[in-house]
Amino acid sequence: MGETYTLITGAASGFGRSVAQRLAPSRRLLLTDINAEGLAATRNFCETPERHLLWTRDLSRLDGVGDELASLLGAKGIGIDHFIHSAGIFGVQFARANEMTFVTRLFNVNLFSAMEIIRPLTQKKVNKGALRSITLISSIASRMGATGGYSVYAATKGALNAMALSLAVELAPAVRVNSVLPGVIGTEMNKEHFANPDFVASMQTAHPLGLGRPEDVADVVEFLSSDHARWITGQEIVVDGGKSAIK
Amino acid sequence: MGETYTLITGASSGFGRSIAQKLAPSRKLVLAGRNAEKLEAVRRICEAPERHLLWVRDLSRVAGLGDELASLLVAKDIGIDHFIHSAGIIMIQLARATEMACVTEVFNVNLFSAMEIIRPLVQKKVNKGALRSITLISSIATRVGASGYGVYAASKGAVNAFSLSLAIELAPAVRVNAVLPGIVGTEMNRENFANPEFVASVRATHPLGLGCPEDVADAVEFLASDCARWITGQEIVVDGGRTIFAPPSRV
Asked: pTM above the 0.90 mark?
């Protein structure tokens, strides 16, 4: 096997893009997303763009994700040392209107695709023991909420938290597994909310440290997927400007 | 609408059966499970068996679940006041061997079936606002990691977060809580409990020793009663102290 790459899902926007920009100077990246144009743009924002690879893939179409990744690694002769799952979709659905197509789509992207990806990354014959860490982007929605309609989204994130805990035990000591729980930060995923100045103002006052930025999450992800976090595994790191401390 | 019933899924065995026995003296029950014979056996050990109804349905097949429950309620002209989701399957599978068909089955039973069941229960035209509480059986697997438990833990972690978020959505009319049992001997893990070494390790890691299904049923009965009228969005751990115990290292 040749060189090792850090795999970032959801890299075309939001946290994924910020993580890519943060890590690009010091690593080779494999960037994946459903949005090919956004992926190319992310790569162009990165230092030494030619060093990074792109994989356009819709994670809501779950079948074959793991096998295709295995083939990609084999074809390129590369391994994955760090996996950062930043792909995530958000949606509001009230319990009285529960529809399984919505549930399936959110679970496929937010959770099941990560399981499918982790499978080949933990197979010796595919990844040759290269994996060092997994960082899953969860959400404080898994711990608290303000209003109705979030139960399915919260469920996908609560699942990530619990999976990280068990995987941390299963894959230790070779691989560390942690989850990051961001608070409400303006990204592509919630740009409609952040277009409303009243909402932005309320977010400012609700967070003791004021508004957060995607870079604040990228900083923590970089830390967790580095040797600085070599004795940290199975943890949920909340990055929310103190919101959960005051509710 | 006629009378109101407490709906218990997974009632054929394990926690569901214990919960049914505990609640039967004071409530009318709808006992749900996939095995008609076992369900009937549970009904017969309940107080006033004739008072309780059976719903034979395999929850791993989620399509149509909500609609079928709605039809049942309308046909019997009854409402559901308390929903207890005790149906659950476990799957031990290492990450490198993850099979999505197994993942889907685990999530269908442990979580998605509950979502589908809750839909008609919170629809005014079907359940007429009768619902008072939802109690979901989760697991301490969401608090203590173990090899091979990634998918099972994920399904229960989803239950926890779903429960918390739903508690906000349905307040104040409906309370929603999760019960997180420790390792208790039931049908779901009877193979493990047939192994004396396993039983010894459970004893050693649970400060209060071995638990039984009735211990979990007691907590569920409490949460689904007026004694818990100001408790919602909570995870109640019933584990004999397992999760606050750090076993001494073996030398």
From this structure: yes
